[in-house]
Design a protein that fits this description.
N-(1-d-carboxylethyl)-l-norvaline Dehydrogenase, domain 2, about 300 residues, globular, Rossmann fold, 2 domains, alpha/beta, homodimer, 12 helices, 8-stranded mixed sheet
């Protein structure tokens, strides 16, 4: 059985590591830019917290990366002093961060040069699903690499029921960008509907019930509606992440010479959240911008 | 059993009349600004096509109105030469058009003056549901009027399962405006997601499947997704209506001094459709604005 390394042990990465240990995999190494986070998880899982990326590669066969953004991907795969591709011949990488399609294509190319293989494993789910191994997992890259990694991916995606092979490198990132773009639009729109309902004195419980029975229904109504009303913005998917992902989608749109007014308005709203200091709130926190009398609140 | 009149026999009004006849009600009179439409339906249902609104009132006990907009409501209830309130003492009106909350309040006041009663019956469903008697029906006005009309309303709303009493006059229109505002945002957002997916060469069937499994899921994905891909914009709910309803919601927002960037962007998109001659398409036709190489097409 392969030795697994995990790079980036935030909310998602740490829970994927726990899940893999639960189902019998050996997670041998973990790494994070915040050494304390890596050490804590290493202790919990009986793994080694590496201080160098090259050590993760040396002590693992399959390395799962869940980092923050394009810049972090660049750093872990092409950092000058230390990176994951040093001594990476024969190693496999599953890159789960939501980053731009170009970055996935670039990383695949770099990895090939040293005889390593990469696969995108874009996740369209959240923390609870990572822990439970029920992630919706969109995979892209070489089909052979996907097949080789299938057993591990299966354990992360409800016995493979929620796993899809999308196409060559970059394609899963495109799909993921579109999923989050549409999700963010629906979220920002819901916040406007509930905010206006509150402003005119409607019973918001009744309003959400009506939304749920009509053309206004959506997944985010279920996941974020109550949180918007109750101002419960404990973070599952941050507003800052939402801004980043809508930004990636708009980058793709710009290249395709497509004007997307809703996505643009949504990007501006989530960007505004980061600008007024609300970027760490859950995406449901966008309601802070649309309910009268709300605004920047204390972080939880 | 009450004699029922129907004013405005477009796609919704005509099917509600058919449904009421199906379940045993007597639809005695119908009226439309297009006399041919009224005559055709009258023939089908064995009713009288009236050329004067006051005649509808005279020959009915309960009058259901399903007209186009605020202006039409003004015309049928306060037209100088001929209107529904002439000789309306003791009559009941169920007003189903999606119009501004203010109009419902005003009409209620006018009706009371002559001893008539009104109820909002805002519908958050479409043509098939009208025909089948499974409308989601949001009612507002005096509670006693609602109770009096309950048997008829029940037959239109899946044996009452989809009927809600919302509050005093104007409140159902507020909820309806919010439902359509959020629905229109989700529709415009979905059109952007699918349009961008098409632009970068993704398999749209796959993309819709992924949307349906993730945070991008919504009711409009089910009702409009395929139509957007297939350019099947046969009209259930027109883009012109969508523009009107988003406009009503923005009017409410303006009064509440609330800035809603998503609703505003959506309004502009649907308004643009009417401006480029696509207002008669179904709301799914908004995809014509977001898919490359599409644009004004022949009406079906």
């Amino acid at each position: 059985m392969e030795r697994i390394g995990v790079v980036g042990v935030g909310r998602m990465g740490a829970n994927m590591a726990r899940r893999l240990v639960d189902v019998g995999y050996r997670v041998t190494t973990v790494y994070d830019v915040r050494p304390a986070a890596a050490q804590e998880l290493a202790k919990e899982l009986g793994a080694t917290a590496c201080s160098r990326l090259a050590d993760v590669t040396a002590q693992s066969d399959v390395i799962i990366t869940v980092v923050v953004d394009d810049k972090s991907m660049e750093a872990i795969f092409a950092g000058k002093k230390d990176n994951l591709l040093q001594g990476a011949k024969g190693k496999f990488f599953i890159n789960c961060a939501t980053v731009s399609p170009e970055t996935h294509v670039k990383v695949e190319k770099l990895a090939k040069k040293v005889g390593a293989r990469t696969l995108e494993g874009c996740m369209a789910s959240s923390i609870n699903q990572a822990r439970a191994g029920t992630l919706y997992l969109m995979c892209a890259g070489e089909k052979a690499t996907f097949e080789k990694l299938r057993p591990i991916l299966t354990k992360l995606s409800d016995d493979g029921k929620l796993m899809r092979y999308i196409g060559p490198a970059g394609k899963a990132a495109q799909v993921k960008a579109l999923v989050n773009m549409v999700m963010n639009i629906n979220t920002a729109g819901l916040a406007e509907g509930l905010g206006l309902g509150a402003a005119v004195g409607l019973d918001l419980k009744m309003l959400m019930e009506v939304f749920s029975q009509t053309g206004a229904n959506s997944r985010v109504l279920v996941t974020d509606g109550e949180d918007m009303v109750n101002r419960d913005h404990a973070c599952f998917f941050s507003a800052a992440h939402a801004a980043k992902d809508s930004g990636i989608a708009l980058g793709v749109a710009k290249k395709a010479k497509l004007n997307l007014p809703l996505a643009t308005a949504t990007y501006k709203q989530f960007k505004k959240m980061t600008q007024v200091g609300l970027g760490d709130l859950d995406k449901s926190g966008i309601a802070e911008l649309t309910f009268k009398g709300r605004g920047p609140i204390k972080k939880r």
